[in-house]
Task: inverse folding
């Protein structure tokens, strides 16, 4: 009997270790629970990195720079697709790069993250919105040949009164965004400003710079609302980015245009804020616009079947 006691003790120890190992593996497989209950994406149209976060004085974006210190600033975010408005925004909303017409006559081949919010959380489509100063962005609310029911498509407020009605001032878009946040309490929302792209196309440098400055202020207005409203405070993930940059000074007509593969057109930025993200951090890792979609997909368990990015590690760990 004494001979068998050590063997029994060893066997019992092995059994305990096996159970603990299985428990650890099970715990590791459990998805992280995030505090954020809402996702707001703010897109500033077409600033060049050199006039925003690439300028160490941050003279054109003092408000946005201050906001960035409350979250994570990604300094190597890139548009790796077509560097224009429709394709840049479509990449962020669907998690895929494509080749859309830039005039609103075509829609992406894939569903956007707002559609998945409706499906995953069984939301009214009034709880998901796309609000833009450019009317053509309305075309991004659905995908080509999807044939969704109207209640599966996010609500939109784009341009003057919808597709083919022209652009409007960003001040109106800010007002409409605030009204929508207060009235409908959307769980997912995309807000898009036309500046500084709209003014840059005139070729007037000061107008371009003023467009950057104004969107910095409008973004601060939205951020302050989200920080003080009881519905959104401390439970909302906010992603502030841009759809594309602009030509380097040595290419074509410089800042006035965009659309090629140069560093100026591809280099964008991202500021990520929310209760689950670090504060005051700068991340120089290389990421792509479609990684924003993947991060939202991961955090909110949207089960987006076709997105092709990678979740941003420093935001989900």
Result:
């Amino acid at each position: 009997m004494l001979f068998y006691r050590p063997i029994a003790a060893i066997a019992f120890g092995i059994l305990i270790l096996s159970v603990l190992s299985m428990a650890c593996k099970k715990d590791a497989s459990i998805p992280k629970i995030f505090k954020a209950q809402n996702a707001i994406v703010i897109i500033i149209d077409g600033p060049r990195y050199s006039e925003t976060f690439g300028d160490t004085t941050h003279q054109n974006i003092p408000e946005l720079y201050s906001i960035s210190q409350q979250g994570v600033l990604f300094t190597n975010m890139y548009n790796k697709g077509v560097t224009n408005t429709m394709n840049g925004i479509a990449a962020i909303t669907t998690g895929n790069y494509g080749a859309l017409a830039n005039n609103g006559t075509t829609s992406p081949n894939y569903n956007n993250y707002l559609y998945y919010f409706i499906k995953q959380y069984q939301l009214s489509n009034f709880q998901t919105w796309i609000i833009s100063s450019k009317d053509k962005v309305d075309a991004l609310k659905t995908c080509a040949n999807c044939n969704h029911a109207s209640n599966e498509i996010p609500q939109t407020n784009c341009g003057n009164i919808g597709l083919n009605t022209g652009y409007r001032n960003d001040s109106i878009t800010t007002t409409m965004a605030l009204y929508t946040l207060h009235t409908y309490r959307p769980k997912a929302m995309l807000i898009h400003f036309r500046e500084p792209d709209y003014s840059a196309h005139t070729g007037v440098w000061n107008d371009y710079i003023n467009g950057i400055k104004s969107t910095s202020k409008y973004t601060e207005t939205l951020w302050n609302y989200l920080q003080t409203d009881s519905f959104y405070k401390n439970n909302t993930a906010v992603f502030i980015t841009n759809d594309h940059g602009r030509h380097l000074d040595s290419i074509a007509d410089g800042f006035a245009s965009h659309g090629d593969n140069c560093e100026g057109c591809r280099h964008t930025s991202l500021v990520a804020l929310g209760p689950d993200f670090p504060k005051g951090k700068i991340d120089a890792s290389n990421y792509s616009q479609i990684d924003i979609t993947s991060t939202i997909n991961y955090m909110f368990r949207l089960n987006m079947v076709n997105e092709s990015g990678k979740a941003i590690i420093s935001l989900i760990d």
